[in-house]
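Researcher: I'd like a candidate sequence for this fold, 232 residues long. If you have to choose between options at a position, lean toward the conservative one.
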């Protein structure tokens, strides 16, 4: 499971080959959610080796997602790779993302997240996390670009090894949809049009740098707080 999860799926490999022939960058949704410099590193350098401490979370996520995919109905869009071009919007880039589950009949988009609650009860956690909301909104944008009806509702399902919590996420209105698209174009241009030294890093919290495989080489990394550390 670990070996398979580290290897790009056939759909992504095909998309990368097509993008290379078209002379555009292929950007992944997860890379557009965080630090701009981290996404640039991911585009231009080999991926960092995974630490043994990260294996458990990857295996846990692989197990849950494989089980959920097997339960999806025939008409559902489950674990489906979606690709949209930003070229007509002024960025030499395509965006690729794999949505966990979309029900076209209900127009409901669902994203599943496995988390470590660090001993806290799931109900006590401050959820949803804002970058998870942003990720679901980008998936909604991708669904619309792929010809599916734009989602009317969304939810994030959080799971640890002992509990499940479902949190509703409001879908953006027309103005916010336009803002999401504009931000995607802005971020893609920052990544793809940067000079040889890369764009400026813009991490929002120290944990993002703590979990970044490129942090040791990054001049813009944030240092952990002196008293305690921010939770992921």
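Model: Candidate sequence:
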């Amino acid at each position: 499971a670990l070996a398979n999860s580290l290897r790009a799926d056939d759909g992504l490999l095909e998309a990368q080959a097509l993008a290379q022939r078209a002379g555009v960058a292929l950007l992944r949704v997860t890379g557009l959610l965080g630090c701009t410099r981290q996404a640039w590193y991911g585009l231009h350098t080999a991926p960092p080796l995974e630490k043994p401490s990260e294996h458990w979370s990857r295996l846990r996520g692989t197990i849950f997602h494989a089980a959920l995919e097997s339960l999806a109905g025939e008409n559902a869009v489950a674990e489906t790779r979606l690709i949209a071009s930003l070229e007509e919007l002024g960025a030499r880039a395509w965006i690729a993302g794999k949505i966990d589950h979309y029900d076209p009949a209900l127009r409901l988009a669902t994203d599943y997240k496995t988390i470590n609650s660090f001993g806290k009860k799931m109900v006590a956690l401050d959820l949803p996390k804002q970058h998870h909301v942003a990720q679901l909104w980008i998936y909604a944008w991708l669904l619309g670009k792929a010809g599916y009806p734009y989602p009317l509702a969304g939810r994030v399902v959080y799971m640890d090894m002992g509990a499940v919590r479902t949190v509703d996420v409001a879908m953006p209105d027309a103005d916010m949809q336009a803002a999401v698209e504009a931000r995607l174009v802005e971020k893609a241009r920052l990544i793809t049009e940067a000079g040889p030294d890369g764009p400026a890093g813009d991490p929002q919290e120290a944990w993002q740098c703590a979990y970044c495989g490129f942090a040791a080489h990054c001049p813009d990394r944030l240092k952990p707080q002196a008293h305690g550390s921010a939770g992921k």
